[in-house]
Amino acid sequence: MTDQRWRKRFLGNRPLAPETLMMGYGYDPFLSERSLKPPVFHTSTFVFRTAQDGKAFFELAYGLRQKRPNEEPGLIYSRINNPDLEMLEDRLAIWDEAEANLTFASGMAAISTSLWAHARPGSVIVHSGPVYGGTDFLLERILPQFGVTSIEFPAEGGTKAMEEAVDRARALGPIAALYLETPANPTNGLVDIGRARQIAEDLSAGAGKRPAVIVDNTFLGPLYQTPLAHGADLVVTSLTKYVGGHSDLIAGGCSGAAAALEPIRGMRTILGTMCDPNTGWLLMRSLETLKLRMTAAAEGAREVAEFLRGHPAVASVWYLGFLPERHPDRPIFERQCKGAGSTFGFEVKGGEAEAFAVLDKLEVIKLAVSLGGTETLASHPAAMTHSDVPPDEQMRLGITPALIRLSVGIENPDDLIADLDQALRG
Ligand SMILES: Cc1ncc(COP(=O)(O)O)c(C=O)c1O
């Protein structure tokens, strides 16, 4: 059993910062030959000391009884639990300011497993738009096949649009969840998480279960936004992006109160959507540099955004740090976000042909989807990540043919600016 001294979060009265805790939280070297770093537990199953132990571990894992004081869930089988994932989940919960976390094979596995755990045939999911293309496909094309409908409201429509969507949804059936992607991929539109929570509370005041407020925090999380602190019940993240941070793995996470995660944990065990130990180990390694990477990328992004804002071939720059004083998203940004992050869109003057010409001329910046890695990536949302979204819907959501999405990495920003400059010159 892990000695509790490896789970200390305070030095005397001083709370230790997440970046400090990432160097070893939850890992007891004396359980692993005194190895400084945790080993990768490449095993599918774990040996029980006695049959009685096996019985007790299963009783807990399958929720057949409550945990006894000081009892720790025993290791059973890597689809249910694994030491690398348990350490990783403890560390991710610290960043998300959550009681607990679950990790998954991908961001989509985290999102879909969380929604499966909440939705029932006949129920409705109210969600902001745009959402990541895969999430859109899940909500619009897959869940309806199982009797779960969805109602979308545009992120830029503000509270009024969210309230109207909830009214429309109520007429269709019980609302299972309010699902928000904020900032939205790729527009950086913001949704007020606190207001969504209030709406969810109001819905349960009449009758029935309170819908879960679920926030996709991939764009700013976990450094620049902590949705649980603003009223979300669950925060889902594609760990493939900033947390993994090196564009070399695919994984997802879901954080929240332990009780809120229980049905999702059960669903994960049966669907088998968990993260694997090797990826879990890589993610722990990445967490050690998370703050450094996200901070450097955010600083570089500001410089790149400043450059683009002044460029004659650029029509608009959707960088959160440029939200005008009177923009309706500005108060949400100030209340909810701790920084502008490093993924944003910009529109070139013209349309798809002009955007493609810029993308094809880039030399330092790679033409690839995804975001949050050490290297800068550029992509064309309308033709790539959001190509599943019908064209009229794309236009309504602001995903225009002239839009390029940039995920700024940690290269020297001057090199990135020089590359964009030569590409924009045509
Ligand atoms: C905002 C957002 N959510 C979820 C996902 C899905 O994550 P994954 O590719 O890890 O399944 C992505 C992927 O690009 C994303 O951008």
Features:
426 residues, alpha/beta, Aspartate Aminotransferase, domain 2, Aspartate Aminotransferase, domain 1, 3 domains, seven-stranded mixed β-sheet, five-stranded mixed β-sheet, 14 helices, 15% strand, globular, binds pyridoxal-5'-phosphate
Q: What order do the strands of the largest sheet run in, or round the barrel if closed?
A: 3-9-8-7-6-4-5
Main pleated sheet: 7 strands, mixed
Which word captures the global form?
globular
If you consult CATH, what is the topology of the largest domain? Aspartate Aminotransferase, domain 2
How would you spell out the order of helices and strands? Answer: EEHHHEHEHEHEHEEEHHHEHEHEEHEH
Give the % helix: 25-40%
> What is the total domain count?
3
Q: What is the CATH C level class of the largest domain, in words?
A: Alpha Beta
List the total number of helices: 14
Structural class: alpha/beta
Low-confidence stretches: none
Radius of gyration: 22 Å
Strand content: 15-25%
CATH superfamily of the largest domain: Type I PLP-dependent aspartate aminotransferase-like (Major domain)
List the ions, cofactors and other small molecules found in this model.
Answer: pyridoxal-5'-phosphate
Walkthrough of the structure:
The chain is an alpha/beta fold and 426 residues long. It folds into 3 domains: 44-77, no CATH class; 83-287, 3-Layer(aba) Sandwich (Aspartate Aminotransferase, domain 2), CATH 3.40.640.10; 290-425, Aspartate Aminotransferase, domain 1. Helix content is 38%, strand content 15%. It contains 14 helices and 14 strands. The protein has a 7-stranded mixed beta sheet with strand order 3-9-8-7-6-4-5, sandwiched between helices. A hairpin with a 2-residue loop joins strand 1 and strand 2. Helix 3 packs parallel to helix 9 (277-287), helix 4 crosses helix 8 (258-271) and helix 10 (290-309) packs parallel to helix 14 (413-425). The protein is globular and about 70 Å long. The model has no long low-confidence stretch (mean pLDDT 96). The chain binds pyridoxal-5'-phosphate. Residues 106-108, 132, 134-135, 181, 185, 216, 218, 238, 240, 250, 252, 370 line the site of pyridoxal-5'-phosphate.
